[in-house]
Amino acid sequence: MSNFVTKRREPFRFMVWLGIASSVMIFTIMLAAYVVRRSGPGWTDVKLPNVFLISTIAIVLSSFTLRNANTAFMHERFKSYRSNMGTTLMLGILFIVLQAWGWRQMLTAGIGLAGNPSGSFVYIISGVHLLHIFIGLIFLGIILTEALRRRPYVDSFVYSVNPPNLLKLRLITLYWHFVDILWLGLFVFLLVHHGLDWPVTFSR
Hints:
The chain is mostly helical. It has helices at residues 2-38, 51-74, 78-108, 117-148, 153-160, 163-194. The longest helix is centred in the N-terminal third of the chain and has 37 residues, at 2-38.
């Protein structure tokens, strides 16, 4: 019976990996289009918003807190699990806020979607990535809500030994680490071609 249940759960893992593969293809196409368009006329490199660096630090930290949450979950330290999951969720939200702040800095500097294609690509690449972050935050929120509903140790323990719940945590962890690594790659790519708008400021 357990083997039958395990086989029924495998499609969810396959769907996550399929989504990851599809995302890699989408961003590969966008970066290829970026490289091709960059050699064309009318291209002027724009500086990356300085808060993009801080948002990158936030998303990297979220991977560490999610890793800590998984470790706590495995060792039945459910209070630590809940706090680390909550911190991961908050860091994900902070990433979105900082990215939006970066867009505002670009708009204030007169860089919009129209005109210089360099700025347009920054909006598009970071915007599509934000959609991936939104999806991850939804599932992180669901898992955190389930954890907060099971504060008593017995309830938390019963939840933790349920294989579907363990698989759910593993899949969201896989997805979240992927979007974190994906952003690191995108950020480095954009940083090499654009540079940062130093010094780091928080002007309104």
